[in-house]
Task: structure prediction
Amino acid sequence: MNDFHKWDAWSPWAKLDPDAKTTFEGPSAGEGAVFAWAGNREIGEGRMTLTQSRPAELIQIKLDFVQPMAGTSTAELISLLSLSMISAGVAFGAPTPYQLLAS
Result:
């Protein structure tokens, strides 16, 4: 969860446009890492910046949407680890104009 280079492996949005253009800036992982995308009408265009990182526990992301509607939001991904299973939850800190997907 801490490395945007591995984002496509689990993100349901990546499956909506496998041909989306993506770029990375800043550190390869952790706070300050940036992932930008430009894709089809389903995923639009935007960028996310990792603002807080506690690997295997929590990451906080600033989301800047460009298209189809401009907006800014904050997302937190929380990992719940146990011996028998791994699960993750997502919480958004502001309304977003995009449909949220669950896999």
Q: What stands out?
A: The chain has one domain: 4-92.
